[in-house]
Amino acid sequence: MPRFTLPDLSLEGFRQRLASVDALPQLCVLGVVSGLITGGFMVGFRLLIDLGALAFMPGGDPEAFEGLSPLVRSALPILAVILVGVFLWRQPERARKMGVAHVMERLTYHQGRFPLRNWLNQWWVGVVTVLGGLSAGREGPAIHLGAAASSGLGQQLRLPHNSLRVLVACGTAAGISASFNTPIAGVIFAMEVVMMEYTIAGFMPVILASTMGAVVAQLVYGPEPAFQVPSVTLGTLMNLPWIVVTALVIGLLAGLFIHVARSDWIKGVPVWLRLSLVAVATATVAWWYPEVQGIGYDSLAASLTGDLTVDVLLALVVAKLLLTAITVASGIPIGIIGPVLVVGAAAGALMGLFGAWIWPERGAEPGLYAMLGMAAMMGAVLQAPLAALMALLELTHNPNILLPGMLAVVVSGLTSRQLCRCDGFFISATRHGLHPLQQPLMQALSRVSVPAVMERSLECAPRMMTRERARMLLTRNPIWVLIERSSDDKPVLALKAADLARWLMEAESEPREDDGGGEGEEAELIDLMEIPGLRLELAPIHLQATLSEAFERLNDQSVDALYVEHGNRPKRKRISGIITRGAIERYYRLGD
Q1: Which of 342, 359, 518, 528 has a CA positioned 20 to 30 A from the CA of residue 75?
Q2: Mean pLDDT of 474-499
Q3: How many angstroms separate the CA atoms of 297 and 363, rounded?
Protein backbone atom coordinates (compact mmCIF):
# COMPACT_ATOMS: atom_id res chain seq x y z
CA MET A 1 0.00 0.00 0.00
CA PRO A 2 1.43 3.43 -0.88
CA ARG A 3 1.82 5.91 1.92
CA PHE A 4 0.08 9.25 1.81
CA THR A 5 1.34 12.12 3.94
CA LEU A 6 -0.70 15.17 4.82
CA PRO A 7 0.77 18.52 3.74
CA ASP A 8 2.37 20.68 6.41
CA LEU A 9 -0.30 23.31 7.17
CA SER A 10 1.69 25.09 9.85
CA LEU A 11 3.12 28.58 9.43
CA GLU A 12 6.62 27.09 9.22
CA GLY A 13 5.49 24.81 6.40
CA PHE A 14 3.91 27.82 4.69
CA ARG A 15 7.24 29.66 4.88
CA GLN A 16 9.14 26.69 3.48
CA ARG A 17 6.82 26.41 0.50
CA LEU A 18 7.11 30.13 -0.21
CA ALA A 19 10.89 29.83 -0.43
CA SER A 20 10.65 27.92 -3.72
CA VAL A 21 9.88 29.36 -7.14
CA ASP A 22 6.70 27.32 -7.70
CA ALA A 23 4.72 28.24 -4.56
CA LEU A 24 1.75 29.50 -6.57
CA PRO A 25 -1.05 28.47 -4.16
CA GLN A 26 0.67 30.16 -1.23
CA LEU A 27 1.49 33.28 -3.25
CA CYS A 28 -2.11 33.50 -4.46
CA VAL A 29 -3.32 33.45 -0.86
CA LEU A 30 -0.94 36.32 -0.12
CA GLY A 31 -2.21 38.15 -3.22
CA VAL A 32 -5.82 38.02 -2.03
CA VAL A 33 -4.91 39.23 1.47
CA SER A 34 -2.64 41.95 0.08
CA GLY A 35 -5.37 43.22 -2.25
CA LEU A 36 -7.89 43.46 0.57
CA ILE A 37 -5.41 45.28 2.81
CA THR A 38 -4.35 47.72 0.08
CA GLY A 39 -7.93 48.35 -1.01
CA GLY A 40 -8.83 49.18 2.58
CA PHE A 41 -5.93 51.58 2.97
CA MET A 42 -6.67 53.22 -0.38
CA VAL A 43 -10.29 53.78 0.65
CA GLY A 44 -9.05 55.16 3.99
CA PHE A 45 -6.66 57.54 2.22
CA ARG A 46 -9.38 58.82 -0.11
CA LEU A 47 -11.75 59.25 2.85
CA LEU A 48 -9.11 61.35 4.63
CA ILE A 49 -8.91 63.61 1.58
CA ASP A 50 -12.72 63.81 1.42
CA LEU A 51 -12.98 64.61 5.13
CA GLY A 52 -10.38 67.34 4.79
CA ALA A 53 -12.25 68.77 1.82
CA LEU A 54 -15.43 69.03 3.89
CA ALA A 55 -13.71 71.60 6.08
CA PHE A 56 -13.13 74.30 3.46
CA MET A 57 -13.75 73.12 -0.13
CA PRO A 58 -17.03 74.06 -1.89
CA GLY A 59 -19.43 71.14 -1.69
CA GLY A 60 -16.76 69.05 0.02
CA ASP A 61 -15.19 68.38 -3.38
CA PRO A 62 -11.37 68.06 -3.10
CA GLU A 63 -11.04 69.18 -6.73
CA ALA A 64 -13.19 72.33 -6.49
CA PHE A 65 -10.40 74.91 -6.26
CA GLU A 66 -12.23 77.02 -8.87
CA GLY A 67 -14.97 77.67 -6.31
CA LEU A 68 -12.57 79.30 -3.84
CA SER A 69 -11.69 82.97 -3.89
CA PRO A 70 -8.35 83.82 -5.56
CA LEU A 71 -6.88 84.82 -2.19
CA VAL A 72 -7.80 81.55 -0.48
CA ARG A 73 -6.70 79.25 -3.28
CA SER A 74 -3.40 81.13 -3.60
CA ALA A 75 -2.82 80.93 0.15
CA LEU A 76 -3.37 77.15 0.27
CA PRO A 77 -0.13 76.07 -1.49
CA ILE A 78 1.88 78.49 0.68
CA LEU A 79 0.37 76.94 3.81
CA ALA A 80 0.92 73.41 2.48
CA VAL A 81 4.59 74.06 1.75
CA ILE A 82 5.07 75.58 5.22
CA LEU A 83 3.53 72.51 6.86
CA VAL A 84 5.63 70.12 4.81
CA GLY A 85 8.77 72.18 5.34
CA VAL A 86 8.32 72.53 9.10
CA PHE A 87 7.23 68.98 9.96
CA LEU A 88 9.02 66.94 7.28
CA TRP A 89 12.37 68.70 7.00
CA ARG A 90 12.97 68.34 10.73
CA GLN A 91 13.24 64.62 10.14
CA PRO A 92 16.29 62.79 8.68
CA GLU A 93 16.60 62.68 4.92
CA ARG A 94 15.82 58.96 4.83
CA ALA A 95 12.43 59.64 6.46
CA ARG A 96 11.48 62.04 3.65
CA LYS A 97 11.52 59.36 0.95
CA MET A 98 8.04 58.37 -0.21
CA GLY A 99 6.00 57.35 -3.21
CA VAL A 100 6.77 55.02 -6.11
CA ALA A 101 10.49 55.87 -6.20
CA HIS A 102 10.77 54.89 -2.54
CA VAL A 103 8.94 51.60 -3.24
CA MET A 104 11.39 50.75 -6.02
CA GLU A 105 14.39 51.68 -3.87
CA ARG A 106 13.23 49.43 -1.02
CA LEU A 107 12.51 46.63 -3.47
CA THR A 108 15.93 46.95 -5.11
CA TYR A 109 18.23 47.43 -2.14
CA HIS A 110 16.24 46.39 0.95
CA GLN A 111 14.40 43.23 -0.15
CA GLY A 112 11.03 44.96 -0.01
CA ARG A 113 11.23 46.00 3.65
CA PHE A 114 9.77 49.42 4.45
CA PRO A 115 10.46 51.72 7.42
CA LEU A 116 7.39 52.56 9.49
CA ARG A 117 8.24 56.26 9.81
CA ASN A 118 8.11 56.85 6.05
CA TRP A 119 4.79 55.02 5.85
CA LEU A 120 3.26 57.19 8.57
CA ASN A 121 4.62 60.36 6.92
CA GLN A 122 3.06 59.33 3.63
CA TRP A 123 -0.45 59.60 5.10
CA TRP A 124 -0.34 63.24 6.13
CA VAL A 125 2.00 64.44 3.38
CA GLY A 126 -0.26 62.92 0.72
CA VAL A 127 -3.35 64.59 2.16
CA VAL A 128 -1.64 67.97 2.67
CA THR A 129 -0.14 68.16 -0.82
CA VAL A 130 -3.43 67.27 -2.56
CA LEU A 131 -5.73 69.45 -0.44
CA GLY A 132 -3.11 72.18 -0.19
CA GLY A 133 -3.44 72.93 -3.87
CA LEU A 134 -0.03 71.73 -4.99
CA SER A 135 0.06 69.97 -8.35
CA ALA A 136 0.07 66.49 -6.82
CA GLY A 137 -1.62 63.12 -7.32
CA ARG A 138 -2.90 60.44 -4.97
CA GLU A 139 -1.61 57.37 -6.85
CA GLY A 140 1.99 57.63 -5.62
CA PRO A 141 0.91 57.74 -1.95
CA ALA A 142 -1.57 54.91 -2.58
CA ILE A 143 1.14 52.68 -4.06
CA HIS A 144 3.50 53.41 -1.15
CA LEU A 145 0.81 52.80 1.47
CA GLY A 146 -0.34 49.56 -0.17
CA ALA A 147 3.10 48.13 -0.94
CA ALA A 148 4.46 48.90 2.52
CA ALA A 149 1.37 47.51 4.28
CA SER A 150 1.49 44.30 2.23
CA SER A 151 5.21 43.92 2.86
CA GLY A 152 4.64 44.62 6.56
CA LEU A 153 2.28 41.64 6.70
CA GLY A 154 5.04 39.45 5.30
CA GLN A 155 7.57 40.84 7.75
CA GLN A 156 5.28 40.16 10.69
CA LEU A 157 4.88 36.55 9.55
CA ARG A 158 8.67 36.34 8.90
CA LEU A 159 8.11 35.20 5.33
CA PRO A 160 11.11 34.68 3.01
CA HIS A 161 12.24 37.73 1.10
CA ASN A 162 11.25 36.39 -2.31
CA SER A 163 7.61 36.46 -1.17
CA LEU A 164 8.07 40.03 0.13
CA ARG A 165 8.90 41.05 -3.46
CA VAL A 166 5.63 39.56 -4.66
CA LEU A 167 3.75 41.29 -1.84
CA VAL A 168 5.22 44.64 -2.91
CA ALA A 169 4.01 44.03 -6.46
CA CYS A 170 0.57 43.03 -5.13
CA GLY A 171 0.30 46.22 -3.07
CA THR A 172 1.36 48.32 -6.06
CA ALA A 173 -1.19 46.75 -8.39
CA ALA A 174 -4.00 47.00 -5.86
CA GLY A 175 -3.16 50.66 -5.22
CA ILE A 176 -3.44 51.58 -8.90
CA SER A 177 -6.53 49.39 -9.32
CA ALA A 178 -8.35 50.92 -6.35
CA SER A 179 -7.43 54.46 -7.41
CA PHE A 180 -8.53 54.34 -11.08
CA ASN A 181 -10.82 51.27 -10.98
CA THR A 182 -8.53 49.75 -13.63
CA PRO A 183 -7.44 46.30 -12.40
CA ILE A 184 -5.64 45.24 -15.60
CA ALA A 185 -3.64 48.47 -15.75
CA GLY A 186 -2.73 47.95 -12.09
CA VAL A 187 -1.28 44.54 -12.86
CA ILE A 188 0.71 45.75 -15.87
CA PHE A 189 1.96 48.81 -13.99
CA ALA A 190 3.23 46.66 -11.12
CA MET A 191 5.05 44.24 -13.40
CA GLU A 192 6.29 46.75 -15.98
CA VAL A 193 7.26 49.73 -13.82
CA VAL A 194 8.00 48.33 -10.35
CA MET A 195 9.01 44.67 -10.75
CA MET A 196 10.36 45.07 -14.33
CA GLU A 197 9.71 41.41 -15.12
CA TYR A 198 6.94 39.10 -16.27
CA THR A 199 6.61 35.68 -14.64
CA ILE A 200 3.67 33.31 -14.10
CA ALA A 201 4.47 33.12 -10.38
CA GLY A 202 4.37 36.91 -10.27
CA PHE A 203 1.32 37.49 -12.44
CA MET A 204 -1.22 35.26 -10.70
CA PRO A 205 -0.99 36.69 -7.17
CA VAL A 206 -0.72 40.23 -8.56
CA ILE A 207 -3.89 39.70 -10.63
CA LEU A 208 -5.73 38.51 -7.53
CA ALA A 209 -4.46 41.47 -5.51
CA SER A 210 -5.49 43.96 -8.19
CA THR A 211 -8.94 42.36 -8.39
CA MET A 212 -9.44 42.51 -4.63
CA GLY A 213 -8.28 46.14 -4.53
CA ALA A 214 -10.83 47.08 -7.19
CA VAL A 215 -13.59 45.14 -5.39
CA VAL A 216 -12.97 46.96 -2.11
CA ALA A 217 -12.93 50.36 -3.85
CA GLN A 218 -16.11 49.56 -5.77
CA LEU A 219 -17.91 48.55 -2.58
CA VAL A 220 -17.36 52.09 -1.30
CA TYR A 221 -17.26 54.29 -4.43
CA GLY A 222 -19.18 52.22 -6.97
CA PRO A 223 -18.04 50.75 -10.30
CA GLU A 224 -17.39 54.07 -12.05
CA PRO A 225 -13.79 54.96 -13.02
CA ALA A 226 -11.91 57.93 -11.59
CA PHE A 227 -13.29 60.20 -14.33
CA GLN A 228 -15.91 59.94 -17.06
CA VAL A 229 -14.75 59.34 -20.63
CA PRO A 230 -17.01 60.19 -23.61
CA SER A 231 -17.54 57.83 -26.53
CA VAL A 232 -15.44 58.93 -29.51
CA THR A 233 -14.29 57.37 -32.79
CA LEU A 234 -11.23 57.75 -34.97
CA GLY A 235 -13.23 58.27 -38.16
CA THR A 236 -10.93 58.21 -41.16
CA LEU A 237 -7.44 56.72 -41.05
CA MET A 238 -6.19 60.02 -42.46
CA ASN A 239 -6.04 61.18 -38.83
CA LEU A 240 -3.12 58.84 -38.16
CA PRO A 241 -0.41 61.24 -39.44
CA TRP A 242 -1.68 63.97 -37.12
CA ILE A 243 -1.75 61.46 -34.25
CA VAL A 244 1.93 60.80 -34.94
CA VAL A 245 2.66 64.55 -34.79
CA THR A 246 0.66 64.81 -31.56
CA ALA A 247 2.57 61.93 -30.00
CA LEU A 248 5.86 63.51 -31.06
CA VAL A 249 4.93 66.77 -29.30
CA ILE A 250 3.83 64.88 -26.16
CA GLY A 251 7.07 62.89 -26.15
CA LEU A 252 9.00 66.18 -26.12
CA LEU A 253 6.82 67.43 -23.25
CA ALA A 254 7.53 64.20 -21.35
CA GLY A 255 11.25 64.72 -21.87
CA LEU A 256 10.97 68.30 -20.62
CA PHE A 257 9.11 67.11 -17.53
CA ILE A 258 11.72 64.48 -16.67
CA HIS A 259 14.68 66.81 -17.23
CA VAL A 260 13.18 69.55 -15.02
CA ALA A 261 12.18 67.06 -12.31
CA ARG A 262 15.74 65.67 -12.26
CA SER A 263 17.39 69.08 -12.48
CA ASP A 264 20.61 69.18 -10.48
CA TRP A 265 20.46 72.97 -10.55
CA ILE A 266 17.17 73.05 -8.63
CA LYS A 267 18.38 70.39 -6.20
CA GLY A 268 21.48 72.48 -5.51
CA VAL A 269 19.47 75.50 -4.38
CA PRO A 270 19.08 75.92 -0.57
CA VAL A 271 16.05 74.16 0.86
CA TRP A 272 14.23 77.30 2.00
CA LEU A 273 14.61 78.85 -1.46
CA ARG A 274 13.39 75.71 -3.22
CA LEU A 275 10.30 75.46 -1.06
CA SER A 276 9.62 79.17 -1.46
CA LEU A 277 9.87 78.80 -5.24
CA VAL A 278 7.25 76.02 -5.23
CA ALA A 279 4.89 77.95 -2.95
CA VAL A 280 5.13 81.27 -4.79
CA ALA A 281 4.96 79.77 -8.29
CA THR A 282 1.93 77.63 -7.47
CA ALA A 283 0.16 80.48 -5.68
CA THR A 284 0.79 82.86 -8.58
CA VAL A 285 -0.58 80.54 -11.25
CA ALA A 286 -3.51 79.49 -9.02
CA TRP A 287 -4.66 83.12 -8.75
CA TRP A 288 -5.68 83.06 -12.44
CA TYR A 289 -5.81 79.33 -13.26
CA PRO A 290 -6.95 77.21 -10.32
CA GLU A 291 -7.32 74.26 -12.72
CA VAL A 292 -3.61 73.52 -12.20
CA GLN A 293 -4.13 72.76 -8.51
CA GLY A 294 -4.63 69.35 -6.93
CA ILE A 295 -4.84 66.15 -8.93
CA GLY A 296 -6.84 67.74 -11.73
CA TYR A 297 -9.23 64.93 -12.64
CA ASP A 298 -12.04 67.45 -13.03
CA SER A 299 -9.92 69.36 -15.54
CA LEU A 300 -9.03 66.09 -17.27
CA ALA A 301 -12.70 65.17 -17.64
CA ALA A 302 -13.46 68.65 -18.98
CA SER A 303 -10.66 68.40 -21.55
CA LEU A 304 -12.08 65.06 -22.74
CA THR A 305 -15.50 66.58 -23.31
CA GLY A 306 -14.17 69.81 -24.87
CA ASP A 307 -15.35 72.08 -22.04
CA LEU A 308 -12.05 73.91 -21.50
CA THR A 309 -10.94 77.06 -23.29
CA VAL A 310 -7.65 77.24 -25.13
CA ASP A 311 -5.97 79.41 -22.50
CA VAL A 312 -6.89 76.94 -19.73
CA LEU A 313 -5.56 74.05 -21.82
CA LEU A 314 -2.30 75.96 -22.34
CA ALA A 315 -2.07 76.63 -18.60
CA LEU A 316 -2.50 72.92 -17.90
CA VAL A 317 0.14 71.93 -20.46
CA VAL A 318 2.78 74.49 -19.53
CA ALA A 319 2.11 75.57 -15.96
CA LYS A 320 0.95 72.25 -14.48
CA LEU A 321 3.81 70.39 -16.16
CA LEU A 322 6.44 72.80 -14.84
CA LEU A 323 4.85 73.16 -11.39
CA THR A 324 4.73 69.37 -10.93
CA ALA A 325 8.32 68.95 -12.12
CA ILE A 326 9.66 71.79 -9.94
CA THR A 327 7.83 70.43 -6.90
CA VAL A 328 9.42 67.02 -7.42
CA ALA A 329 12.87 68.52 -8.03
CA SER A 330 12.53 70.59 -4.84
CA GLY A 331 12.20 67.41 -2.79
CA ILE A 332 8.51 67.61 -1.88
CA PRO A 333 7.22 64.02 -2.13
CA ILE A 334 4.14 64.12 -4.37
CA GLY A 335 2.40 61.68 -6.69
CA ILE A 336 3.05 62.46 -10.35
CA ILE A 337 0.82 59.97 -12.19
CA GLY A 338 -2.41 62.00 -11.89
CA PRO A 339 -0.84 65.33 -12.97
CA VAL A 340 0.94 63.58 -15.86
CA LEU A 341 -2.39 62.25 -17.16
CA VAL A 342 -3.94 65.72 -16.91
CA VAL A 343 -1.07 67.36 -18.80
CA GLY A 344 -1.21 64.69 -21.50
CA ALA A 345 -4.95 65.04 -21.94
CA ALA A 346 -4.70 68.85 -22.21
CA ALA A 347 -1.86 68.62 -24.73
CA GLY A 348 -3.83 66.11 -26.79
CA ALA A 349 -6.94 68.31 -26.70
CA LEU A 350 -4.92 71.30 -27.91
CA MET A 351 -3.45 69.30 -30.78
CA GLY A 352 -6.94 68.02 -31.61
CA LEU A 353 -8.29 71.57 -31.79
CA PHE A 354 -5.40 72.60 -34.00
CA GLY A 355 -5.97 69.59 -36.25
CA ALA A 356 -9.69 70.38 -36.54
CA TRP A 357 -8.82 73.97 -37.50
CA ILE A 358 -6.39 72.78 -40.19
CA TRP A 359 -8.72 70.10 -41.53
CA PRO A 360 -12.27 70.87 -40.34
CA GLU A 361 -14.00 68.26 -42.51
CA ARG A 362 -11.96 65.16 -41.63
CA GLY A 363 -10.34 65.92 -38.27
CA ALA A 364 -11.33 63.69 -35.35
CA GLU A 365 -12.88 65.13 -32.20
CA PRO A 366 -10.49 66.82 -29.76
CA GLY A 367 -11.74 64.39 -27.10
CA LEU A 368 -10.11 61.51 -28.99
CA TYR A 369 -6.78 63.33 -29.07
CA ALA A 370 -7.16 64.10 -25.36
CA MET A 371 -7.53 60.39 -24.58
CA LEU A 372 -4.57 59.48 -26.76
CA GLY A 373 -2.52 62.29 -25.21
CA MET A 374 -3.29 60.99 -21.75
CA ALA A 375 -1.98 57.51 -22.62
CA ALA A 376 0.96 58.85 -24.63
CA MET A 377 2.13 61.10 -21.78
CA MET A 378 1.84 58.31 -19.21
CA GLY A 379 3.67 55.85 -21.45
CA ALA A 380 6.47 58.32 -22.27
CA VAL A 381 7.09 59.58 -18.72
CA LEU A 382 7.02 56.12 -17.12
CA GLN A 383 8.40 54.26 -20.16
CA ALA A 384 5.51 51.84 -19.57
CA PRO A 385 3.69 51.43 -22.90
CA LEU A 386 1.62 48.39 -21.89
CA ALA A 387 0.40 49.99 -18.66
CA ALA A 388 -0.59 53.12 -20.57
CA LEU A 389 -2.48 51.12 -23.20
CA MET A 390 -4.32 49.04 -20.61
CA ALA A 391 -5.30 52.21 -18.71
CA LEU A 392 -6.59 53.70 -21.98
CA LEU A 393 -8.62 50.57 -22.75
CA GLU A 394 -10.13 50.25 -19.27
CA LEU A 395 -10.97 53.93 -18.96
CA THR A 396 -12.61 54.23 -22.40
CA HIS A 397 -14.16 50.73 -22.64
CA ASN A 398 -13.52 51.14 -26.36
CA PRO A 399 -11.29 48.52 -28.04
CA ASN A 400 -11.32 50.52 -31.29
CA ILE A 401 -9.11 53.16 -29.68
CA LEU A 402 -6.26 50.68 -29.23
CA LEU A 403 -4.98 51.04 -32.80
CA PRO A 404 -4.33 54.81 -32.62
CA GLY A 405 -3.40 54.38 -28.95
CA MET A 406 -0.61 51.94 -29.78
CA LEU A 407 0.76 54.31 -32.39
CA ALA A 408 0.64 57.30 -30.04
CA VAL A 409 2.22 55.48 -27.09
CA VAL A 410 5.09 54.06 -29.16
CA VAL A 411 5.91 57.35 -30.90
CA SER A 412 5.82 59.38 -27.68
CA GLY A 413 7.90 56.77 -25.83
CA LEU A 414 10.53 56.67 -28.56
CA THR A 415 10.65 60.47 -28.70
CA SER A 416 11.21 60.79 -24.97
CA ARG A 417 13.77 57.99 -24.90
CA GLN A 418 15.75 58.69 -28.06
CA LEU A 419 15.44 62.43 -28.71
CA CYS A 420 15.30 63.59 -25.09
CA ARG A 421 17.58 60.83 -23.70
CA CYS A 422 15.17 60.02 -20.87
CA ASP A 423 14.74 56.74 -19.07
CA GLY A 424 11.52 56.01 -17.23
CA PHE A 425 10.85 58.60 -14.55
CA PHE A 426 11.37 56.12 -11.70
CA ILE A 427 14.48 54.48 -13.16
CA SER A 428 17.98 55.75 -12.45
CA ALA A 429 20.25 53.96 -14.92
CA THR A 430 23.46 52.41 -13.64
CA ARG A 431 26.79 52.72 -15.38
CA HIS A 432 26.05 49.40 -17.10
CA GLY A 433 22.84 50.82 -18.52
CA LEU A 434 20.50 48.57 -16.54
CA HIS A 435 18.62 49.14 -13.33
CA PRO A 436 19.42 46.34 -10.82
CA LEU A 437 15.84 45.08 -11.13
CA GLN A 438 16.37 44.65 -14.90
CA GLN A 439 19.45 42.42 -14.62
CA PRO A 440 18.48 38.85 -15.63
CA LEU A 441 20.72 37.12 -13.08
CA MET A 442 19.41 39.10 -10.11
CA GLN A 443 15.82 38.75 -11.34
CA ALA A 444 16.12 34.96 -11.46
CA LEU A 445 17.86 34.67 -8.10
CA SER A 446 15.40 37.01 -6.41
CA ARG A 447 12.48 34.68 -7.12
CA VAL A 448 13.79 32.00 -4.75
CA SER A 449 14.84 32.09 -1.11
CA VAL A 450 17.74 30.31 0.52
CA PRO A 451 15.75 27.38 2.05
CA ALA A 452 14.81 26.11 -1.42
CA VAL A 453 18.45 25.49 -2.37
CA MET A 454 20.41 25.10 0.88
CA GLU A 455 21.79 21.77 2.08
CA ARG A 456 20.22 20.86 5.42
CA SER A 457 22.27 17.74 6.15
CA LEU A 458 25.11 19.06 8.26
CA GLU A 459 26.75 18.78 11.66
CA CYS A 460 28.65 21.38 13.68
CA ALA A 461 31.85 20.28 15.38
CA PRO A 462 34.77 21.85 17.23
CA ARG A 463 38.11 21.96 15.53
CA MET A 464 39.66 19.43 17.94
CA MET A 465 37.76 16.18 18.58
CA THR A 466 38.42 12.50 19.30
CA ARG A 467 38.11 9.79 16.65
CA GLU A 468 35.24 8.23 18.55
CA ARG A 469 33.30 11.48 18.47
CA ALA A 470 34.10 11.88 14.78
CA ARG A 471 32.67 8.41 14.06
CA MET A 472 29.55 9.19 16.10
CA LEU A 473 29.13 12.40 14.13
CA LEU A 474 29.30 10.52 10.83
CA THR A 475 26.60 8.03 11.89
CA ARG A 476 24.06 10.84 11.34
CA ASN A 477 25.07 10.91 7.64
CA PRO A 478 25.82 14.61 7.23
CA ILE A 479 26.94 16.08 3.90
CA TRP A 480 28.93 18.89 5.53
CA VAL A 481 30.82 19.28 8.79
CA LEU A 482 30.96 22.91 9.96
CA ILE A 483 34.12 23.61 11.94
CA GLU A 484 33.37 25.97 14.81
CA ARG A 485 35.59 28.66 16.23
CA SER A 486 36.39 27.80 19.85
CA SER A 487 35.83 31.35 21.14
CA ASP A 488 32.17 31.82 20.18
CA ASP A 489 31.03 28.54 18.59
CA LYS A 490 30.56 30.25 15.24
CA PRO A 491 31.40 28.08 12.21
CA VAL A 492 34.21 29.46 10.09
CA LEU A 493 34.95 26.59 7.70
CA ALA A 494 32.96 23.82 6.03
CA LEU A 495 34.49 20.38 5.40
CA LYS A 496 32.90 17.65 3.31
CA ALA A 497 31.84 14.82 5.62
CA ALA A 498 33.04 12.38 2.95
CA ASP A 499 36.60 13.71 3.35
CA LEU A 500 36.47 13.13 7.11
CA ALA A 501 35.09 9.60 6.62
CA ARG A 502 37.79 8.80 4.07
CA TRP A 503 40.54 9.98 6.40
CA LEU A 504 39.18 7.87 9.29
CA MET A 505 39.05 4.77 7.11
CA GLU A 506 42.59 5.31 5.91
CA ALA A 507 43.81 5.92 9.45
CA GLU A 508 42.18 2.74 10.73
CA SER A 509 43.65 0.66 7.88
CA GLU A 510 47.21 1.75 8.67
CA PRO A 511 49.22 -0.84 10.71
CA ARG A 512 49.77 0.14 14.36
CA GLU A 513 53.32 0.20 15.74
CA ASP A 514 52.44 -1.31 19.15
CA ASP A 515 49.58 -3.39 20.53
CA GLY A 516 48.93 -1.25 23.58
CA GLY A 517 48.18 1.98 21.80
CA GLY A 518 44.53 1.39 20.87
CA GLU A 519 42.89 3.19 23.76
CA GLY A 520 45.35 6.05 23.67
CA GLU A 521 44.84 6.41 19.97
CA GLU A 522 41.06 6.67 20.44
CA ALA A 523 41.51 9.35 23.08
CA GLU A 524 43.96 11.31 20.92
CA LEU A 525 42.48 14.53 19.54
CA ILE A 526 42.36 15.03 15.81
CA ASP A 527 42.50 18.43 14.15
CA LEU A 528 39.79 18.92 11.54
CA MET A 529 41.91 21.66 10.02
CA GLU A 530 44.55 19.06 9.17
CA ILE A 531 42.21 16.56 7.52
CA PRO A 532 43.01 16.37 3.79
CA GLY A 533 40.13 17.87 1.85
CA LEU A 534 38.65 21.06 0.49
CA ARG A 535 37.52 23.52 3.17
CA LEU A 536 35.21 26.40 2.35
CA GLU A 537 35.31 29.67 4.24
CA LEU A 538 31.94 30.65 5.69
CA ALA A 539 29.88 33.74 6.41
CA PRO A 540 26.36 33.92 7.91
CA ILE A 541 23.09 34.71 6.15
CA HIS A 542 19.50 34.72 7.38
CA LEU A 543 16.98 32.04 6.49
CA GLN A 544 14.62 34.59 4.88
CA ALA A 545 17.21 35.84 2.38
CA THR A 546 16.83 35.35 -1.37
CA LEU A 547 19.46 33.75 -3.57
CA SER A 548 20.32 37.20 -4.93
CA GLU A 549 21.15 38.34 -1.39
CA ALA A 550 23.19 35.17 -0.86
CA PHE A 551 25.05 35.73 -4.13
CA GLU A 552 25.88 39.33 -3.19
CA ARG A 553 27.03 38.28 0.28
CA LEU A 554 29.32 35.61 -1.16
CA ASN A 555 30.94 38.27 -3.31
CA ASP A 556 31.09 40.92 -0.57
CA GLN A 557 32.65 38.54 1.98
CA SER A 558 34.87 36.78 -0.60
CA VAL A 559 33.78 33.34 0.60
CA ASP A 560 32.47 30.25 -1.19
CA ALA A 561 29.72 29.20 1.22
CA LEU A 562 27.24 30.63 3.72
CA TYR A 563 25.76 29.05 6.80
CA VAL A 564 22.08 29.81 7.18
CA GLU A 565 20.91 31.15 10.54
CA HIS A 566 17.39 30.77 11.87
CA GLY A 567 15.85 32.89 14.63
CA ASN A 568 15.72 36.54 15.61
CA ARG A 569 17.46 36.53 18.99
CA PRO A 570 21.25 36.88 18.65
CA LYS A 571 22.09 34.35 21.37
CA ARG A 572 19.47 31.81 20.34
CA LYS A 573 20.08 31.52 16.62
CA ARG A 574 20.49 28.05 15.23
CA ILE A 575 22.04 26.90 11.97
CA SER A 576 19.56 25.49 9.48
CA GLY A 577 21.78 24.69 6.53
CA ILE A 578 24.60 25.66 4.23
CA ILE A 579 24.48 27.16 0.75
CA THR A 580 27.47 27.17 -1.57
CA ARG A 581 28.33 29.25 -4.60
CA GLY A 582 28.14 26.09 -6.68
CA ALA A 583 24.57 25.41 -5.50
CA ILE A 584 23.47 28.89 -6.59
CA GLU A 585 25.16 28.50 -9.96
CA ARG A 586 23.52 25.11 -10.49
CA TYR A 587 20.11 26.57 -9.68
CA TYR A 588 20.60 29.40 -12.16
CA ARG A 589 21.75 27.04 -14.94
CA LEU A 590 19.26 24.23 -14.39
CA GLY A 591 16.44 25.41 -12.14
CA ASP A 592 15.46 28.75 -13.66
Answers
A1: 342
A2: 84
A3: 26
